[in-house]
Design a protein that fits this description.
Oligomer: single chain
Strand content: 15-25%
Number of strands: 10
Radius of gyration: 23 Å
CATH superfamily of the largest domain: Aminoglycoside phosphotransferase (APH), C-terminal lobe
Mean pLDDT: 92
CATH class of the largest domain: Alpha Beta
Structural class: alpha+beta
CATH architecture of the largest domain: Alpha-Beta Complex
Length: about 375
């Protein structure tokens, strides 16, 4: 065979290439001739996901290859081989064709079936494919609500309940405080940036009680969450039996309230479309007895989820600044500050509505 696999990702410095090439050679085995047609990076800014195409005897084989940390690779494999099949959704995730671990354990390469370019784009989206995607998201949440496998999902995934908010705010404050240490000697503009972020985080910490109560009263049952529900991870593919939704990239899967997934998904669409999309979700979950809170209460839950993500994104550049004096950290912190400044409620609210401490809500989310 003319398997020019030594050219695959040549010069990129990627770890584990011999193991990845051996796996692809196996997947392409039995062909008389085979040549590399294309390798295209799909992830930015970090080069870890590629589409690769091979020509063989007049046909083309296309794969998506992805470099993962070992724990994340295990999480993805559990999603596909154990968790989704447990609730009858095996065919609604990605198709893993093989895995290749780098010999020193640094990383694992996954090779997936290439699903094509059928991801939702989130802009001026036609309603039928969005409805198919929302149906799948709602079924995922419904079928995993209080499921016996949730402890396993939490062990190998993440926990996105109120603890995610509390711990990330606390850790972000701790890391930013370290930037004021005598060894740092911040420039005035950097000190202003750090102080502004600290002021925001201290305000969030003072709101812990309200946000904890809101999640307890309104959050509903725990369920399996995709954890990174961007439209780029949501595929709606035409088939002979109609459109079929599939969710890819389960790197951040975990356990928590539906608001964590819904806020991510809704924010990928223009504000004027979000209530309509939420209504599609409501139509699926209502027969199971779930009642979603009104927009102003949902907005509080969504805000807690997004602010927890903002806080999480503060931690890592702050650590890099303290430990390595990594100048890129200030740009990353400034980006998070812009996120706070640009934040607006996910859902439009009725004129005159206001957010208050939530006691015994009229429309609890329940099952």
């Amino acid at each position: 065979m003319n398997l020019d696999l030594n050219q695959l990702l040549e010069g990129t410095g990627q770890p584990g290439l011999p193991e990845l090439r051996d796996l692809l050679r196996e997947l392409l085995g039995g062909q008389a001739t085979c040549r590399l047609l294309e390798q295209h990076q799909l992830s930015w800014p970090h080069p870890r996901v590629y589409r690769v195409r091979f020509g063989l005897e007049g046909a083309v084989r296309s794969f998506v290859i992805k470099r993962l940390e070992p724990a994340v690779a295990q999480r993805n494999q559990l999603v596909m081989s154990r968790w989704l099949p447990a609730v009858g959704l095996r065919d609604h995730g990605p198709t893993l064709l093989g895995a290749a671990a780098e010999l020193t354990g640094q990383c694992v390469w996954h090779v997936y079936e290439d699903l094509g370019d059928w991801a939702l784009n989130g802009q001026a989206e036609l309603l039928p494919p969005v409805k198919v995607a929302v149906d799948l998201i709602a079924q995922l949440h419904l079928r995993f609500a209080d499921h016996v496998l949730l402890p396993e999902c939490r062990l190998h995934g993440g926990d996105f309940g109120i603890g995610f908010f509390v711990s990330n705010v606390r850790d972000a404050i701790r890391c930013l405080d370290a930037l004021h240490g005598p060894q740092m000697a911040l420039e005035p503009q950097h000190a202003r940036l750090v102080d502004g972020l600290l002021a925001r985080l201290h305000t969030l910490r003072a709101e812990h009680a309200e946000r904890i109560q809101a999640l307890e009263e309104l959050g509903g049952p725990e369920t399996l969450l995709h954890g990174d529900l961007w439209t780029t991870n949501t595929f709606v593919i035409p088939t002979g039996d109609g459109m079929r939704a599939r969710l890819i990239d389960w790197d951040h899967a975990g356990v928590g309230p539906i608001s964590y997934d819904l806020s991510t998904f809704l924010l990928r669409f223009p504000c004027e479309q979000r209530l309509q999309i939420l209504e599609l979700y409501r139509e699926v979950v209502s027969p199971a007895g779930w009642r979603l809170p009104p927009p102003q209460h949902l907005n509080l839950l969504f805000e807690s989820a997004e602010y927890a993500r903002f806080a999480n994104r503060i931690i890592w550049p702050a650590i890099a600044l303290v430990q390595e004096r990594a100048e890129w950290g200030y740009d990353a912190l400034a980006e998070v500050e812009r996120w706070f400044e640009d934040w607006r409620p996910v859902l439009p609210e009725e004129v005159g509505s206001r957010r208050t401490t939530i006691l015994k809500p009229r429309l609890p989310l329940a099952i």
